Amino acid sequence: MLAAAVFIAGFGVYKSVSPLLVGLFVILRPEASLSDEALRLYMSLASPLAGIAFVGVYWLLVRLVERRAVVELAPRGAWIEAARGVGLAAAAFLLLMAVLTLAGAIAWRPPPVGTWLGHISAGLAFGIASGVLTAIVLQGVLTRLLAQAQGPVFGVVAAAFAAAWWTGGRVHVNAQLGALIDGLTLALIFLRQERLWLGMGLVATWDGLMTVVKGGFYHGDDGNAARAFIFAPEQGSLISWLRGPGGPDTSVPALAGGALVAGFLAWRAFKEGRFTRA
């Protein structure tokens, strides 16, 4: 319980302090002193380092607070598990983009920036860093510790609602529902594997690709239209309903697909007896 208290307190502090940090970032406005190219280069370099730092901090806390080997980050098989997550997320992303494009819910355009490569690298890098943090918090902290303290069902449900509160705190119900499904999926993956690499590969790839196509560098942001690869033309109520109010990841096909995946994982976890395991 001490470990759970320390980790969850840290999560709460992060949630409370992060708006202040964002406000400070806006006040300082580093983009005012950096060119677009320099800002993209900064994001491309700083974001992967931040992702590595998140993993390192988690490893250190587990070693110091829980005094045990960090088996969920053991290197054996890590690349294979992470690659599976990358492949699954990329396949889901391509399928979603194909469905929305064929339905006319989105249209593609080149972003009006100097270089496509800088835009892509910065978007991917920031998405990967935010994805790694999301996976560590939802899987390694909330699901793992709450499942140990209160049981697997409580841990999974708590992680799902925490995701809706943390990453889905926007005005659109679709965004909150999507975050709830994402959190449920990540929690169930960890419940079945008790490892972090697959989840980190999955959510980092999904966040990275979505950041590129939507524009903007901030996780959960609806994007900066000046840096986006796609836009959603207003083409009637049906298309608007299909498209989703917050971008492709809040569209009806994305929510339906995510719900099916979460349902399948829950069924597999139930068949494996994961929900009754102490």
From TrEMBL:
Kindly indicate whether the keyword Transmembrane helix belongs to this entry. Answer: yes
Protein name, entry field: Uncharacterized protein
- Where are the membrane-spanning stretches? 39-61, 82-108, 120-138, 145-167, 173-191, 196-217, 251-270
Keywords (alphabetical) are: Membrane, Transmembrane, Transmembrane helix
